[in-house]
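Retro notes, structure queue

What went well: the backlog is down to a handful. What didn't: a couple of records were mislabeled last round, so from now on we paste the full input next to the output in the thread. Example, using Probable cytosol aminopeptidase from Mycobacterium aquaticum:
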Amino acid sequence: MSSAPGYQAPTVTVSSAVPRRGVADAVLIVPVVTGDPGPKVLGGEPYLDDDTVAAIESGLQALGASGAEGQSHRLVVAGLPVASVLAVGLGKPRDEWPADVIRRAAGSAARSLDKVDSVVTTLGVIDLESTVEGLILGAYRFSEFRSAKTAPKDPGLRKIVVLAADAKAATKKAAERAVDIAAAVATARDFVNTPPSHLFPAEFAKRAKELGETYSLEVEVLDDKALTKAGYGGIIGVGKGSSRPPRLVRLAHRGGGRKSKTVALVGKGITFDTGGISIKPAANMHHMTSDMGGAAAVIATVVLAARQKLPIDVIATVPMAENMPSATAQRPGDVLTQYGGITVEVLNTDAEGRLILADAIVRACEDNPDYLIETSTLTGAQTIALGARTPGVMGSDEFRDRVATLSQAVGENGWAMPLPEELKDDLKSTVADLANVSGSRFAGMLVAGTYLREFVADGVQWAHIDVAAPAYNTGSPWGYTPKGGTGVPTRTMFAALEDIAENG
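Corresponding output:
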């Protein structure tokens, strides 16, 4: 993603030798592993001679470094054309390195070099793509709302040189793919980090439209009048408490022929969630700026599919609304009609995500997709069941497991969850076809998944990724993950699209 709008990634160059010019202010990042009596440089040949390696290892030993995973130490080494060396630990030596270990190490290195604008690294010898992704994602910043008093005075990391034994076209193409993936994740992070005062449904739709048009996607935006006329009762019901009316955005990448697969993407775009009349506690409500994390990831993913020219059709359906309490807000006990005709008793207005998603799912299934992937910050129960870093993946058994496996492979660590049939009984209503919540406090994530399943068309292979906690890091930064928006599950969805493009 090299042109506006969207995140502007650093420039990445693949080189087969350490540059001798233009790197005087750069930092050389080298991986090290634990050893005896101190850390050992990994993958230094042929870029670093024996004397340089010995100097790095001796300096690290003097600093008390261990080479533990994520540990970093900076030192000056004579004879190199760079300003300094940063050694980043990978932990114990291994025969094969998991991609996410390299990605995390690169991210940790980038985060520790906050005021450095240029790096050279030998990490790419181990895994070039993971190195590029980790460096870009670790260097990510969001400072749009900082005044001149607190905004960073330096530009941050803008130039990356990755050393690789083979700097041929295929290697450079792999690096470009990694840049595109990292830029897509960063674009999703930007959306999530933008405060609700500045990212409300109409503005979110505008930005999504600009992105779509920039990358030649088909774009359709429905405003509140069009949504009402077409019968999108869930989106209208959730959004009617706000002075800022809802939207539905459709973005389509047409990359396949008549026989290619079609994948529908759906993402929850609640630009802020107070809970509505069933209002949330004040403590930590500001975290609900992230309640459109699913929509952000879906928009970034369909743009990435276009950037990578995937030979399949990818159609994103993104509902956007703000859930507010007011004289016009829906009430507990109200009945609405979802798009497609199913009536729903709204027992809890804070279970609003499933209402807008249900409308979008029905609309997405009208495109007759082979697969449906949808994602949202669906339930607090995800956090209780799986913690802050593990998305829950629900859906049709085979495709659910496929998506979860791919998620684990890319380091987003989705975990397959069941949808027991008996949970449907918990959603019975005395006045409508369904209730939007159950009367039990158990299995909240699975109950929400069971609700969504009612709207998926027969024959469509389906997976829902619940990222209630993983989409927004409320703790300290770690690896390539910053505080705030994470961009999860952009990489999972793109991995699924690539897998479908290759294997059907």
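Agreed that this is the format going forward. Reviewer comment attached to the example: The chain has a mean pLDDT of 96.
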